[in-house]
Amino acid sequence: MSKGSPKMVKRFSKPIIFVHWLNAAAFFVLYLSALPMYTEYFDWLYAVFGGPAGARLVHRIAAVFFVLPVVIILFADPKSFFHWIKQTVTWRKHDFEFFKEFPKEFFGFHAKVPKQDFYNAGEKVNSILTILTAAMLIISGFVMWFPQYFPRGVVMWAYPIHNIGLGLSAAVVIGHVYLSIGHPASKASFRGITKGDVPEEYAKAHHGRWYDELKEAEKKNNKRIG
Amino acid sequence: MAAEYLKFVDVTKCDGCRACMVACKNWNDLPPEYEEFQGSVQSHEKLTAHTWNILTFNEQETANGGFEWLFRHQSCLHCNQAGCEKACPEDAISHTKFGSVVIDSDKCVGCGYCVQGCQFDVISLATYKDKQGKEYRKAQKCTLCTDRLEEGLQPACVTACHTDCLIYDEREAVLSEANNRLAKIKDRFPNANIYNPEGINGTTTVYLLADKPSVYGLPENPKVALSQVVWKDYAQPLGKAMLGATTMAVIGAVISNSIVKAKNGDKGVDHHE
Lengths: 226, 273
What we know:
The structure holds 2 protein chains of 2 kinds. By secondary structure, chain A is mainly alpha-helical. Chain A has helices at 14-38, 45-48, 52-76, 78-89, 93-106, 121-145, 152-182, 189-192, 200-206, 208-225, and strands spanning 8-10, 197-199. Chain A folds into 2 domains: 10-76, no CATH class; 90-226, Up-down Bundle (Fumarate Reductase Cytochrome B subunit). A two-stranded antiparallel sheet of chain A has the order 1-2. In chain A, α6 runs antiparallel to α7 (152-182). The radius of gyration of chain A is 20 Å and the shape is elongated. The longest helix of chain B has 39 residues, at 226-264. Chain B has a single domain (5-221), classed as 2-Layer Sandwich (Alpha-Beta Plaits). Chain B is an alpha+beta fold. Chain B has a 4-stranded mixed β-sheet. In chain B, strands 2-3 form a two-stranded antiparallel ribbon. Chain B has a two-stranded antiparallel sheet with strand order 4-5.
């Protein structure tokens, strides 16, 4: 990386950044208000929420804010949203090859990762799991919130689905948070979801195919101007 | 866990006096609940958090066009595989050595999962107010008078029963009595059966019913719900293990990254730099 101020490229829009953090904040409030029920080691958290009834209320308020980001982004920046969805379901050779090299990089060793898209294969997996677990949590959570409108068998299935959704999503979040702020090789990406831009060098190294697209677009632009 | 003692309800001996209901309210210090007239002699529609046993009055037409009531002393069956126990995320519901299923109200957080988990609509939530006037909920139901059993007494409902419809006795004695009674009443009640469902490993309250279970609103063949097995036996332990595994991987990565970094100086941490 060059010294001084490196050249930056835009990565995430303001609305995307906003809904990401709204969703993240809601997730943590949901997580904390559910944790005492999930495991007895966190029973003391009930006191923080003013008892189980308080925890349930906080959980329901946060649940609304957990769903809200999808609604907001559909109005504020649908283009970025659908770009994310499209990338997430697009899987090519370079995506699969990513996983051969990734464990080496994860544990700090030298790795030869093939050029990646705007979202690398790891981020795509994170996205898929996030969408999947969010769907599990939201649908089953809705059933649990309004059990009087659903047959008993459905309500009883909602409990394990909500539970599995929580276990999976918490595991995903631990990995996601670590890779964005903890892991030395991908720390730079954190700026993308706070300030909205990343060093060009970082884009080149971690998202080669996206970087190529950027260069391509730049060339066209220059030609047009020239 | 099969209890050594069972409660036996021979519905064909019941005369509908409701002494068991009164005895239960009395011993357990439960408040009266006033209900609108339901169009039947039955006093209360269903079990609630404050009414742990009721006598149901099923109105039936006999084969020759006559009328008869099918009485049933309805209360918790104390299933050996209890749906409420499996549903509880706080492990607040457990079996005692008497085979009774009891709620630890200190552990109960009032989430109501057990209400959905019970196939017999027995357990429900009671709402209380604390000193500050704040409301809180606790699951409540029949305890089989576990506090009395511990003192060598019988359940309150059993002691109140004047027709021996309710009996609390040794397991073998109860089961053989049930068979004897079944043989005796078969002529009058051809559909009579002993209700001690195998799908939930039997219950600590065994019924001799005069008609099919469904006539009494009981499930014909109750089973441990698959959703509960998935939840209690797989999802919960696996989820906790998975959180542990991810956390371990991250801790491992932190350590290994710092070791590699220390070895190579600053080179090699990121192949891109």
